[in-house]
Amino acid sequence: MYTIALIIEIFVAILLMVVVLMQSSKGGGLAGSFGGANLGAVFGVRRTSDFLTKATQWLAAIFIVLALVINLWFLPRGASTRESVIQSAPPTQSLPPIQEAPASQQLPERK
Question: Is 16 helix (H, G, I), strand (E, B) or coil?
Fold first, then answer.
């Protein structure tokens, strides 16, 4: 089930990228390269913009919901307790305490 959800998530991500690239920006965008000009002829300029905006919103919402569902329900839980590399390392030897220098060797305070 995890694999199927992940494949759907990747498919939605690719569709989202294509829809975002098809939207025309102030400079024309990549809409002409991907056939966005033909899409404008079919729907009309205003309806094409509305369609791509709505498609972006829906695909982004589906992407976020799927990401949350995969994370919350399909990923394995941390039920098994394993020691980390730091915990499994042998204990380090303690260092001797730091001794303060005698007053004659200390630097004078700046004023």
Answer: helix
On whether residue 51 sits in a domain, the answer given is yes
Range of the domain at 63: 1-8+33-74
- Strands (DSSP E) contained in 32-81 are none
Grade residue 94 by pLDDT with cuts at 50, 70 and 90: confident
Total of domains in the chain? 1
pTM over 0.90: no
| Maximum alpha-carbon separation in the chain | 90
12 contacts: CB under 8 Å, gap ≥ 6: 59, 62, 63, 66
In a domain, 17, yes or no: no
In a domain, 38, yes or no: yes
**Can you state the angle between helices 36-43 and 45-69, rounded to 10 degrees?**
110
